[in-house]
Amino acid sequence: MSERVIPLVDQRVASLPAHVPAKPIPTTGLLGDALGRPLRDLRISVTDRCNFRCSYCMPKDVFDKDYPYLPHSALLTFEEITRLARLFAAHGVRKLRLTGGEPLLRKNIEILIEQLAGLRTVDGLPLDLTLTTNGSLLTRKARALKAAGLHRVTVSLDGLDDAVFRRMNDVDFPVADVLEGIEAAREAGLGPIKVNMVVKRGTNEHEIVRMARHFKGSGIVLRFIEYMDVGATNGWRMDEVMPSAEVVAMIHRELPLVQLDPAAPGETAERWGYADGTGEIGVISSVTQAFCRDCNRARLSTEGKLYLCLFASQGHDLRTLLRSGATDQDIASAIGAIWQGREDRYSELRASLPPDDGQGVRRVEMSYIGG
Ligand code: SF4
């Protein structure tokens, strides 16, 4: 078992100033990055805290009681988040995903959702307003989230076996409560619901077919996510990755599958339908089948840094600009310039990069910018 390298450098401090370009960049909704990819999807982290300690995201030995979580004053206010989201929408964003940490831990998140629900795309349509959660608070919150204007939820669930699930969330949280939360979301009308399972070889691959059977015919789309080398603290190893091709083959042997076309450009999941027509699954294969070529996602950290890739090591500080009294045009131009310069495609390059010796550039933590 190789030693896990725990970095002492707090990656959150490393950021680039967001410059306002001399020549304003108009908000046309057609902004493209350096590889011609449009800006369509904004993931907004509303907290760096979580009540779970999933080992592949927030390992307990790093994110312990002494971990320097962000003070409330450092977080963007709901008004600041909404203002930024409005400017991103003017540049072409059509979908907002609220993430964390665990977003439902952010107090009064319903107020933010109400504000975001009032925004419009460049062609006057409501934005697709979604949220990714570990489901622990859904039973209590589902109705209020729906009433505030949330469209749908994605719930993380890494297994049905209670012992396996408790081990993976590492806070002894029972699987039954998450399943109850999913039901509450369904009853509240927060659908179509998606469930994400991170597959870690040697930990939960024996739960794959059981999960598929459980959600087959339920209308809930189950997605299997390859274990990723996100951040710098989860001790990632390639031999703990179960390639999606193996996951699909495992299910197909018991529940025949047929491949489906992508539902939307830039979709991260490869879709497979049950041959008997009773639903579909998805696989998200950042390690073995990179999908950077049409990645249209930007990420906003909870303190206002713009990250252009899940595996980025630095963000662009929009909060300073926001709090400096800059105009909407200035901030929109700064966002435009940052996106136009984007060349990120980490997953495509991963195999060609030198092995991580713990001394190189540190990737930002997924719990800080959302999955
Ligand atoms: S690795 Fe980065 S660029 Fe590639 S799909 Fe993921 S977030 Fe997008």
Contiguous helical run count: 11
Cofactors and ligands: iron/sulfur cluster
CATH topology: TIM Barrel
Residue share in helix: 25-40%
The CATH class is identified as Alpha Beta
**Which radius of gyration do the C-alpha atoms yield?**
20 Å
What does this structure look like?
- There is one protein chain.
- The chain has 371 residues and is of the alpha/beta class.
- It has a single domain (42-369), classed as TIM Barrel, CATH 3.20.20.
- It is built from eleven helices and 13 strands.
- It has a 13-stranded mixed sheet.
- Strand 3, helix 2 and strand 4 (128-133) form a beta-alpha-beta unit.
- Helix 1 runs parallel beside helix 2, helix 1 crosses helix 9 and helix 3 (138-148) packs parallel to helix 5.
- The longest helix has 14 residues, at 175-188.
- It is globular and about 60 Å long.
- It starts with 14 loop residues before the first strand and ends with a helix.
- Iron/sulfur cluster is lined by residues 286, 291-292, 295, 297, 309-311, 344-347.
Gist?
This protein has 11 helices and 13 strands. By secondary structure, the protein is α/β, with parallel strands linked by helices. The chain has a single domain (42-369), classed as Alpha-Beta Barrel (TIM Barrel).
What attributes characterize this protein structure?
27% helix, binds iron/sulfur cluster, globular, 11 helices, 371 residues, alpha/beta, 13 strands, single chain
Topology:
Layout: E1 15-17, E2 41-45, H1 78-90, E3 95-99, H2 109-117, E4 128-133, H3 138-148, E5 152-156, H4 162-169, H5 175-188, E6 194-199, H6 208-215, E7 221-226, H7 244-254, E8 257-259, E9 270-274, E10 280-284, E11 297-300, E12 305-307, E13 315-317, H8 318-322, H9 328-340, H10 346-349, H11 366-369
Parallel strand pairs: 1-13, 2-3, 2-11, 3-4, 4-5, 5-6, 6-7, 7-10
Antiparallel strand pairs: 8-9, 9-10, 11-12, 12-13
Helix pairs in contact: 1-2, 1-9, 2-3, 3-5
The structure holds iron/sulfur cluster.
The site of iron/sulfur cluster has 12 residues, from helix 10.
